[in-house]
Amino acid sequence: MPLFSAFSSDEKSVRVAMPWLDSNQPMKTQIAEFVVDVTSGPNSNSYHHWVLVEPEMDLILGIIGFDVVRFRTLDRRRLSRGIHWNLGYWIAPSHRRRGLASESIDIMIAVAKESGVDVVQLSANPQNTGGLITIRSAVERHGGIVSEFGVEMIEESEGETAPYEAYWILTGD
After folding, report:
1. Which pairing describes strands 145-155 and 161-170: parallel, antiparallel, or unpaired?
2. Among 29, 104, 143, 172, which one has the highest count of C-beta atoms within 10 angstroms of its own C-beta?
């Protein structure tokens, strides 16, 4: 329930962070299905998600996680340079602009390195100014590059696609 409460505080930004959410369906139901899928669903071994919590006050600060990148074409797979994980995050509105996303991304990049992942992909909708600033900063800190795809066309909930800026952080040797 705390996760649903945190998400309901800013549904618009949750839908930006999770473009697959269908605006015609109740968000709570979709989030519940998402939690079941990433924790015990048939693809759960392909997801690695953490809830960011402030333990003293039992507050949900956000979520961060890796999803296994799935390529739509063999050509995209060939160009992928070994990408294994796409990194995504969402920070509750009351905790933004405090460095929490940047610190969490840095920790997750270290997890990727320790796990033998060659490349981590980060992408953001160009209309998400805060997300772009955070991702570009992480790319700079970790010596990342603009994805060879440049722009990823991400399918959003209503079947429309939107151009997301895509970057890669090379974590392998």
Report:
1. antiparallel
2. 104
pLDDT digits (tens, 9 = 90+) for 57-77: 878 888 888 876 655 555 555
CATH number, domain 2-170, options 1.10.3210.10, 3.40.630.30, 3.30.559.10, 3.40.640.10: 3.40.630.30
Residue 88 phi, psi (nearest 5)? -135, 160
Cβ atoms 87, 122 nearer than 8 A: yes
Beta-carbon contacts of 5 under 8 Å, excluding residues fewer than 6 positions away, are: 60
Distance, in Å, from the CA atom of 125 to the CA atom of 110, rounded to the nearest integer, reads 24
> Which helix or strand (DSSP H or E) is residue 78 part of?
helix 74-79
Rounded to an integer, what distance in angstroms lies between the CA atom of residue 109 and that of residue 89?
13
12-24 pLDDT, tens digit each: 777 767 766 777 8
Query: Rounded to an integer, what distance in angstroms lies between the CA atom of residue 124 and that of residue 134?
Result: 10
What is the rounded CA–CA span in Å between residue 75 and residue 128?
29
Q: What is the mean pLDDT of residues 33-51?
A: 71
